[in-house]
From TrEMBL, chain A:
Keywords: Cell membrane, Membrane, Transmembrane, Transmembrane helix, Transport. It is found in: Cell membrane. It comes from Bradyrhizobium jicamae. Its main location: membrane. This is ABC transporter permease. One of its GO terms (biological process) is alkanesulfonate transmembrane transport. Gene3D superfamilies: MetI-like (1.10.3720.10).
From TrEMBL, chain B:
SMART domains: AAA. InterPro entries: AAA+_ATPase (IPR003593), ABC_transporter-like_ATP-bd (IPR003439), ABC_transporter-like_CS (IPR017871), ABC_transporter_ATP-bind (IPR050166), P-loop_NTPase (IPR027417). One of its GO terms (molecular function) is ATP hydrolysis activity. Keywords: ATP-binding, Cell inner membrane, Cell membrane, Membrane, Nucleotide-binding, Translocase, Transport. This is Aliphatic sulfonate ABC transporter ATP-binding protein. One of its GO terms (biological process) is alkanesulfonate transmembrane transport. Involved in beta-(1-->2)glucan export. Transmembrane domains (TMD) form a pore in the inner membrane and the ATP-binding domain (NBD) is responsible for energy generation. SUPFAM superfamilies: P-loop containing nucleoside triphosphate hydrolases (SSF52540).
Amino acid sequence: MSLIDSLPRVGAPKLPRVDGLIPWIVPLTIILIWQVACVTGFVSARVLPAPSDVALAGWKLLLSGELARNIWVSFWRASVGFLIGGSIGFSFGLANGLSQTSSKLTDTTLQMVRNIPHLALIPLVILWFGIDESAKLFLVALGVFFPIYLNTLHGIRTVDPQLIEMGRIYGMSDGELFRRVIFPGALPSIFVGLRFALGIMWLTLIVAETIAASSGLGYMAMQAREFMLIDVVVLSILIYALLGKLADSASRALERLTLSWHPAFQKH
Amino acid sequence: MQEALRLISPGAEPVRADFVEQARRLRHGSDGASRGLALTIRGLRKSFGDNEVLRGIDLHIPAGQFVAIVGRSGCGKSTLLRLIAGLETITAGTIGFSEETRPEDVRVMFQEPRLLPWARVLSNVEVGLGHERHLPDAQARAESALVEVGLDEKRGQWPAVLSGGQKQRVALARALVSQPRVLAFDEPLGALDALTRISMQRLLERVWHDQGFTAILVTHDVSEAVALADRVLVIEEGGIAHDIEVDIPRPRRRGSAQLAALEGSILKNLLQGTEDTSDL
Ligand SMILES: Nc1ncnc2c1ncn2[C@@H]1O[C@H](COP(=O)(O)OP(=O)(O)OP(=O)(O)O)[C@@H](O)[C@H]1O
Ligand SMILES: [Mg+2]
């Protein structure tokens, strides 16, 4: 949400129902043009199948139960990997933000590791774990770790020191100071990390499943490629997009709920 | 003039011309004793590394007095205030209160309101109760402090939607809610516009009269100092260069010849050490 959009407009009365539909105009138009282009033969079905064909393929896979199974597997990998990497990153961010000693001990190391692109580890990870579940979880967790770590750390370090002094003056204990001043102050930055991490989570999973997996959406797409089932390939890509959008919406909703005090989130 | 002020800024605190007299009668009618604490400072020094900011301050402030501290920027006014409030460590010397103090007895208010943006106005005020904020009457006390500063209707708002003057009034309520016996102000009105300043000055004077705490106000505005204080201290080169009694009865009329004359002489004192006064 940009600041300018959230400013109240003068004169223009709000039409809430129409407002909610506006974001869907562009995707729907694109699908419509795509359909027309395919039906009229402007685009060959070997290059890009029509949306109706993709939907049909999806329906068939849904009936066979294959679609639900693969989505579930991918979803499970994404969320478990995210929880593991996210909670470790969050803990390190808290520890290094709050304690000088902990920061001196681990921050330099972590900053060094951060410069290795985690996808470069794929060959090593396959050697270690094979194409086991743990390989995917490891990669997702590693990818998610850094945005969460860095933004939690940054959030805590940039809490207004004047507010911390105020908390101390008014006799807050360490626990209270954390709960009432430091954590809420770091929260906007933590959310930035969360949304970055969600993006990296899907990216990592797609790559990992395409290269080393025997189930999941990425595997489904690679299988379909071998059998030239281009509609299934497109379907997998669309489902990835949808899941990514869903994760983003969930984090936005959470953000709106917890940051309702923030001027950028206030309703007019 | 007062009517006009109220018309111009309808959100401002309503002006009560008679409050000072009322308060005086209340206070002196009952027992005459002030709730404030007396304060004695002896040989106070403070250095930051090699930089000796305060070089021996000796000062006695009687209970309930309103003292203003003025001086050029960087002369150590804030440092003195922070030492009194216990926010800095003393290099040498002593600061003593006339009675044993609880942490809730000494409160500070800064130029920035320092409100928690993620807490509603009322819970920001509750923060001021210190260790007593978990008692059952906490909310009632916070509410009455808000009433005191005339912001009762904003209790459920986020600080972000308040004006600068309103935020500062919430900060005042937070400082008052524990009924402190010493209240230290570090340029609390420095960031406000002229009209809001005047109404805030009246508010400060009123709560000081009602509650009888000892008030220590750091300000760079000499006219504010002489309008509010019983006594003005001028700090220069790490010491108290002038200690001026403001013997003008309250309520004081802003812009009166008496106040202007006193303000002029204090300004002259302040400028004495300055070599280049041609542009002033
Ligand atoms: N925490 C600190 N560390 C080092 N030096 C400090 C610190 N706080 C203040 N000083 C120094 O002490 C001197 C006095 O500062 P102080 O803030 O008390 O001035 P002031 O009179 O309040 O000025 P102003 O009117 O601009 O607020 C300054 O030279 C400042 O650089
Ligand atoms: Mg200062």
